Amino acid sequence: MRITFCDHRILFLVFSALNHNGYDLEGNPEMHPLRIYVREQLAGLPENDYFRQAAAGWPRANWLGATALCLGDDLQFTHDPTRLWDEIDWESPEPLDGAARAWLGELPEHLTSWEQQPRVAALWPEYLGRIREAETPGLRQEIVKLVEQRLSLLPQPVEHALTVLPNYLQSDWSADPVRVSTRHYIILGPLSLRLADSILHELLHEYFGPLLEPLRPTLGHAIRLLEPDHALLARWGYWHVSDANKTVYKVLQECCVRAAMALLLASSIDTADWGNYGLNLAYPLYAHFRRQGYFSSAAEVEEYLLSELSAAAATSAKPASQGRTRSG
Fold it and tell me: Which residues contact 251 (CB under 8 A, 6 or more apart)?
């Protein structure tokens, strides 16, 4: 597992334009001082209807941020964004249809016009300098060390490399994983040590996805367990009207990830206390699948969640080289 950081100029261009055109998606009353400074420096520049469409609501701003990672330094596509858009379409409760894809395809044109504003071009190097001033020395290395320490408790390693893209122009609770070709990214808000948990959370999705993928075609019958929380799950982006298997799969994966987070961070967790970890919706679903026998032959899921990981966390002082192996 290799974690690196990158301050991304094109991502800065996207989110500076969004902020200038009204982006305050999170309703965050306590913006980072650097974000406030950037907004002040851009005040008075012409507004842009293209970016205003995305600034008005989720998930379009996230779509633009992800698409920006398919662009090169010249603000032209260096990667075909089709596969990325297909993945976004699968994840998003709002379909990324032909009209939306055509709109995203116009991003290079609008970013080029935006960067041609002298004030915007001059702000990028200043933004970088102010990031260095805002971060405590060694913060990025501390985050990597903390994530690696927690990942060492897993029965099997997470194989791929991850590039973390700090974005001081969004909320500190927002985290968006993006995959472009074979590269894995996560777009995070202003860096702090606690954002190690956000990185860990997204890496655990990569860990559990392949384990749960074989079950996906047969999960839809459990949708009834989620009906009482339909409105809440829809607001969180988990509810897919036309695909019950997708809805249940996504909630079940989130259940496993959050359970593993709780075990990694707190060594053990009482199921009566799962509501405090945001698991009160997902745990009944997990319990249902256990009763149905779905995990009876998938020891890597059940034993990992309920035995392997808690035991490893309880003995976390043991060197990683003596780590546990998954039982069969």
Answer: 226, 233, 238, 281, 282, 285
- What is the Cα–Cα distance from 48 to 114, expressed in whole angstroms? 9
∠ Cα 218 257 182 (to 5°): 85
Can you tell me whether residue 71 is helix, strand or coil? Answer: strand
CA distance linking residue 278 with residue 299, whole number of Å: 24
Distance CA(5)–CA(1), nearest Å, equals 14
Distance between CA atoms of residues 109 and 113, nearest Å = 6
pTM recorded for the entire structure: 0.79
Digit-coded pLDDT (tens) for 88-145: 877 776 778 899 999 999 999 999 999 999 999 999 999 999 999 999 999 999 999 9
Half-sphere exposure of 20 (CA within 13 A, CB side): 23
Q: Is 265 left (phi over 0), alpha (psi -120 to 50) or beta?
A: alpha
pLDDT tens digits, 54-66: 887 667 888 999 9
